[in-house]
Automatic annotation (TrEMBL):
<keyword id="KW-0812">Transmembrane</keyword>
<feature type="domain" description="Methylamine utilisation protein MauE">
    <location>
        <begin position="8"/>
        <end position="79"/>
    </location>
</feature>
<keyword id="KW-0472">Membrane</keyword>
<feature type="transmembrane region" description="Helical">
    <location>
        <begin position="67"/>
        <end position="88"/>
    </location>
</feature>
<keyword id="KW-1133">Transmembrane helix</keyword>
<protein>
    <submittedName>
        <fullName>MauE/DoxX family redox-associated membrane protein</fullName>
    </submittedName>
</protein>
<dbReference type="Pfam" id="PF07291">
    <property type="entry name" value="MauE"/>
</dbReference>
<dbReference type="InterPro" id="IPR009908">
    <property type="entry name" value="Methylamine_util_MauE"/>
</dbReference>
Length: 125
């Protein structure tokens, strides 16, 4: 299995799991939806869960994997404000919670790089 396929598989599982969690336990995610966004947090939670599931599907299928990599990178950029909101909201929390919130910030960069790797691996054939 090539590195691009492995990375696509990893991202598909990660996003699929996150999508299921967003839909099954939305209250867990509602609190990190940036308050500056208009409308109800739950709508954004469900929309991001559906997007995660859709992108996971694109990554899982070889013929749509390149599009899936592009969509995954865009999704990881789009959800970054929620990670910033979490880091801000948890700034006074216990050390473990603060570490989780702060650790998510650079992790987004790693995930974006992995999504781009999928695209370049598909392009290289």
């Amino acid at each position: 299995m090539s590195g691009g396929r492995r990375t696509a598989g990893f991202l598909a599982v990660l996003l699929g799991g996150a999508g299921i969690l967003h839909l099954a336990r939305p209250e867990t995610f509602d609190g990190i939806v940036p308050r500056a966004l208009p409308g109800r947090a739950r709508v954004y939670t469900y929309a991001s869960g559906a997007a995660e599931l859709g992108v996971a599907g694109l990554l899982a299928v070889p013929s749509t994997r390149r599009l899936g990599g592009i969509a995954a990178a865009a999704l990881f950029v789009a959800v970054f404000p929620a990670n910033l909101q979490m880091a801000y909201d948890w700034r006074g929390a216990r050390p473990r919670k603060r570490a989780i919130a702060l650790g998510r910030l650079p992790l987004q960069g790693v995930l974006i790089a992995q999504a781009r790797h999928v695209v370049t691996a598909v392009d290289r054939g």
